[in-house]
Amino acid sequence: MKNLFCILVTYTKPIHEIEQILAEHRAYLQKGYDAGFLLVSGPQNPRIGGCIIGHFADKDAAIAFTHNDPYYLNNVAIYEIIEFSPVLHAKCIKEFVQD
């Protein structure tokens, strides 16, 4: 199975600054979905950041992905990257987690 990565996004600027580049951020994430390496993403509740789950070649690739995110490029968020090995998973994501 592929290792997965949970990317925790924490906003460092007020929400009105986040909202100004939200469409760019989501368009950037869409490229990851289109390429097949992102599984799910969305805002935290309360809205202090977000969470992105996907698979990358390694942690360096996950870091590189975050460094091209419009949030990073506009200095409005920081990222914590957690790599984990999926042991159990729902049948609906079987293809996503398998090598």
From the spread of the alpha carbons, the general shape counts as elongated
The CATH architecture can be given as 2-Layer Sandwich
Element string (H = helix, E = strand)? EHHEEHHEH
The percent range for helix content is 25-40%
Q: Strands of the largest sheet, in order across it? A: 2-3-1-4
Tally of separate domains:
1
Instruction: Work out the helix count.
Output: 5
Rg calculated over all Cα atoms? 14 Å
The CATH topology assignment is Alpha-Beta Plaits
Classified in CATH, the superfamily is Dimeric alpha+beta barrel
Structural class by sheet pairing and helices: alpha+beta
CA distance, first residue to last residue: 5 Å
Global mean pLDDT: 96
Strand percentage lies at 25-35%
What can you see in these coordinates?
The protein has 99 residues and is of the alpha+beta class. It has one domain: 2-Layer Sandwich (Alpha-Beta Plaits). Helix content is 37%, strand content 28%. It is built from five helices and four strands. It has helices spanning 15-20, 22-35, 59-67, 70-73, 94-97; strands spanning 4-11, 38-43, 49-54, 77-84. It has a four-stranded antiparallel beta sheet, with helices on one face. The model has no long low-confidence stretch (mean pLDDT 96). Keywords: Hydrolase. Pfam families: YCII. One of its GO terms (molecular function) is hydrolase activity.
